[in-house]
Amino acid sequence: MKAALQDYHARMQRVLDHIDRHLDDDLDLDALSSIAAYSKYHFHRQFTATFGLSVHRYIQLARMKRASYRLAYRDAQSVTDVAMDAGYDAPDAFARAFRQRFGQSPSSFQKSPDWEPWLAAFGPLDNARSKLMQKTFTADDVTIRDVPPTAVAIMEHRGDPAMLGATIQRFIAWRKAAGLHPRTNPTFNVWRSERRPASPANYSVDLCVGTDQPIEAHGEQIKAGEIPGGRCAVLRVVGNTDNLEPAALYLYRDWLPASGEEARGFPIYCQRLSFFPEVPEHEAVAELFLPLK
Hints:
Elements: H1 2-21, H2 29-36, H3 40-51, H4 55-73, H5 79-85, H6 91-102, H7 106-111, H8 115-121, H9 123-132, E1 142-147, E2 150-158, H10 164-177, E3 187-191, E4 204-210, E5 223-227, E6 230-238, H11 245-259, E7 269-274, E8 285-291
Antiparallel strand pairs: 1-6, 2-4, 2-5, 3-4, 3-7, 6-8, 7-8
Helix pairs in contact: 1-2, 4-5, 5-6
């Protein structure tokens, strides 16, 4: 029974990965049912029963998520280009669908996103993905590295995590103006609070980019700092890296007590090595670092 369930999950995971990789293609029911190795007459019912939304709805949300990321974080891409990438033949059709889902026009979202409706809109997609994408980790997934110190420029986010998207948008715009491209300057997040503290006002994370050059603020509140060197337990996460809390909990709750190691006095942090939407969401990569004594 367990082997049959694992086979079923593997088939459905192949479908999700194929959708991620081919959002620009015609994702018809025949092709997707073939990838799952199920009859098309049953596949759409099985998909809906497994994920809580239809194949068509899932694809719509996945395309709209990529489109919204491109609008918010890629200022050089036009609304028309984003609409075409999202599978719409005309910008006005895309604009109607976008406004219906997010309560903003694409151009308004591009200039000043309202992140709370955005988070709510993708709840069904995130819930669907979590059905099969819950990662399990073992001690073999953790390595211990000696990490060199890294000078960084820091933009702090303090307060409601629902507004983190706005800080990320400003951070990306600032580092573009400063010429600090992700290909040449590494990206880090340093978590200084729980992901969901008792009060949203207590949420705290530092957005960092590696640089040892003098920092030009360009009107933003940017400060220089350092991610200290030393021994770290490192856990690599491949796939949806929006929520790295399960990986962090594994390091703290499971790996650390069993390892005999002790944590050092610097928060857990991650380095983001590849990003959605530059790569399909299931190919995004992040590494978590737990500093050790």
